[in-house]
Amino acid sequence: MSLGFIMLVHTAFDRAEQVARYWASNGCPVVIHVDGKVRPARFRAFRDQFRDDPMIRFSRRTRVEWGKWSLVRATQFAAERLLADFPDVRHVFLASGSCLPLRPVSELRDYLDAHPETDFIESVTTEQVTWTVDGLEAERFTLRFPFSWRKQRKLFDAYVRFQRRFGLRRRIPEGVSPHLGSQWWCLTRRTLSSILSAPDRASMDAYFAKVWIPDESYFQSLARRYSTQIESRSLTLSKFDVQGKPHVFYDDHQPLLERSDCFVARKIWPRADRLYEVFLDDTRLANRGAEPNPGKIDRVFSKANERRGQGRPGLYSQARFPSPGLENGLTCARYNIFSGFDFLFDGFEPWLARRIGGRIHGHLYAPERAEFAGGETLMNGCLSDSAALRDYRPTQFLTNLLWSTRGERQSFFIGPHDAQDVVPFVTSDPNATIAAVTGAWAVPLLTSNLGFDAIKAEAARLQRVELAFLKELKSPGLAARVHVWPLADFVAQPTEKLQNVLSEITGPSPRRLTDLPPMRDLTGFRDFLLRLRDGGVKPQVMGDLALFPTKTDGGAKHGSV
Amino acid sequence: MARAPDLWQAYKLRWKRRRLLARSFAKRGQLSARQDRTDRIGPGDILAFATVRNEMSRLPWFLRHHRALGVAHFLVVDNDSDDGTVDYLVEQPDVSVWTTPHGYKASRFGVDWLTVLLARHGHGHWCLTLDADELFVYAHHDRRPLRALTDWLDLTGRESMGALMLDMYPRGPLGQARVDPQDDPIATLSHFDAGNYVMIRQPVLQNLWVQGGPRARAFFADDPRRAPTLSKVPLIRWNRRYAYVSSTHSALPRHLNHVYDQSGGEAPTGVLLHTKFLPNILTKSTEEKERRQHFENSTLYEGYYDALISDPVLWCEASTRYAGWQQLEGLGLLSRGGWE
């Protein structure tokens, strides 16, 4: 009879009964505290079920509010009863009505026999605690908390701020070293009775009654005062979500629970019939002597918490629609946007595809349709090439495309002919690499068959759009990696400039860029631009016109606009 | 602190909700109980509510699917069926049936009728309000009953859960598929659009307005704004003061619509597998086009009906074949939202 249990019960009485009887039938006394909020009739019915079992007893009741002092009070009542009624008990294990033993009691008892002096209680100094939801660690012990965190959050926060502002602090009593930890522990009789029969218990209780969430600090701090040997971990497997609510275990967690080799888990869904059936059956094969190893379960649940808390970057869905600024990544993957190159080079797309791989789309925001790679009309995820659908939610068109093609590098072209709604979005996205040769749109106009007036009007329109585009590239919220060259500068040293962009996209490559796709003939381009200028459309985005060849000489000559 | 315009908005919506409730109760006379088994509803039971019309091709599987999830009782309003729907429902031990011959559109597409039943029988229960062509799935639904989900929603302080309506379609022309009402329609309506959904937050009701899917791309590519709404809030721990506003897309009070996460995380979200495109969609569309009972401005949707009647193929190379909730979660259409 070296091991006894305290059980705090407030609901799911049938499951609590099942587990209490299991422990009692294995020779472990159980003292049950039933929440004072439970109706007397319900309580009596529950208690009377155990009339025939001297190993199961009931403690004085108090109305328990989770996270409040009353929870410690209830634990004290039950612990006092257990220590008084069962003098042979050496270790006391605190459990709740939704706890379930995962290994036979005999194994737990053997384990404790091997550690007769050890207190198993997670007890971490306030500096090292990382799990608190409210961000209060050391201040739990030094501030006052008259308001409910759940129901009066604003008052709670305001009063905390007030106390910080004016330096109001409670004094931590002599001999208390603030520690926090899981409320589920297993203490030796010596430590527990030292805490409960301490001469200054009344003042300790009075102090902790006003500490924030005392069930995570009362025994955790006081054990440090009396224990000779603490293992700072809980024997109860218990996981918490991002709100600080316990994760619940269901039938399908059985393999996971088995592999954890933990002794007790909480909390179990009361209707998880299979878990109760399997784990309360001592005839099953068990992993004798294994050390508890909650690591595997930790990984699974921290992944779930991450999904809940941070979500998947770049996903916009019925589950996740972050407000501006809270996206945690606007898009899910890196992507590249090229502007101007296709006007300047013949066959730039296939050349680029050979160089950087992935999917090279045409002008995704072209006025007629989204030019998907390979001329597809429906991309991954059934994303349509319809311009109307795209322009209805232009940024979500892009986020959808990137989400549905995860794992494959996406690149596309944009130019002043295209819809520009997506530009502010991509310039503020660190995943975007934007390479632009400005003024390149004028190259096709050079050989256009349109009348000069029409060309002028078109040039004026495209230049206006490109100037707005450039303005976005200089906006204070810029986060994209941007490479912009005026056409004249780019044409002077195209290989080197492209090399820089491509190695940024694919990572540094030892191979020098040697073969560029053929550049369109720029003969007469300078004269063309001068004509535009003289016609009233001043070329503002092409750079120094003197760098362009004239009609006659084919080489660069200096001159100025 | 809430700003003054917001308080004013909240005040107006409170009256809107009261008007909706009053309007629904004024119509309670339109319902006549055909088979009332609501005395069998136990405390804590999960209930399903639906308005149906000629749904014999879907009801057997609809009931089977949601029974398997743990719906304890179905409360169904039949709107003038003539295909044996009522007789079939009356035979079911866990179904209560009301009938009404009145207009579907005038009843806000059945919502007025369901509001009365929800207030009378749904108060305090978790209620799933569905159409007969919707199959509710959520994370772990193949292993954990709805009760596990609703207990967890209670534990984490949620009163409602959202779902994306996912239009399911067959491989070939809609009219050529063959489906036995006793069998899982998803075996035939096996494909869906995985990644073309767009959304905005509606400022007044604060719900998310999701559109997209095969209907948007095939029938509304020229006018995407008219594409059907796919966001729903089908699962609510009901209170008799609550009211759905338009179908189950949004509800009042507004906090029920906060089923999506706005701070970057993922909220628990289900999917309604939409079995609208069974082969009888052709005849149903012909009938719906004539009855003009399914849209506020039915004339605008004649083209949509004509397209459906012409037996289209919604399937394309980029379609995804349904393989379960894990797949939907991987695609980002469903989320466990921390429910591990």
Automatic annotation (TrEMBL), chain A:
Domain DUF5927: 266-550
Alphabetical UniProt keywords: Disulfide bond, Endoplasmic reticulum, Glycoprotein, Glycosyltransferase, Golgi apparatus, Membrane, Metal-binding, Signal-anchor, Transferase, Transmembrane, Transmembrane helix
Localization annotation: Endoplasmic reticulum membrane; Golgi apparatus membrane
GO cellular component, one term: membrane
InterPro entries xref list: DUF5927, Glyco_trans_14, XYLT
Pfam families assigned to the protein according to its UniProt record, in alphabetical order: Branch, DUF5927
Domain of life: Bacteria
Topological type in the membrane: Single-pass type II membrane protein
Metal-binding keyword on record: yes
Residue stretches in coiled coil: none
Alphabetized GO MF terms: metal ion binding; protein xylosyltransferase activity
Gene Ontology biological-process annotations: chondroitin sulfate proteoglycan biosynthetic process; heparan sulfate proteoglycan biosynthetic process
Principal location: endoplasmic reticulum
Keyword Transmembrane in record: yes
Protein name per its UniProtKB record: Peptide O-xylosyltransferase
Species whose genome carries this gene: Jannaschia pohangensis
Automatic annotation (TrEMBL), chain B:
A GO MF term: transferase activity
UniProt cross-references to Pfam families, sorted A to Z: Glyco_tranf_2_4
Keywords: Transferase
Top-level taxon in the UniProt lineage: Bacteria
InterPro entries per record: Nucleotide-diphossugar_trans (IPR029044)
SUPFAM superfamilies on file: Nucleotide-diphospho-sugar transferases
Protein name per UniProt: Glycosyl transferase family 2
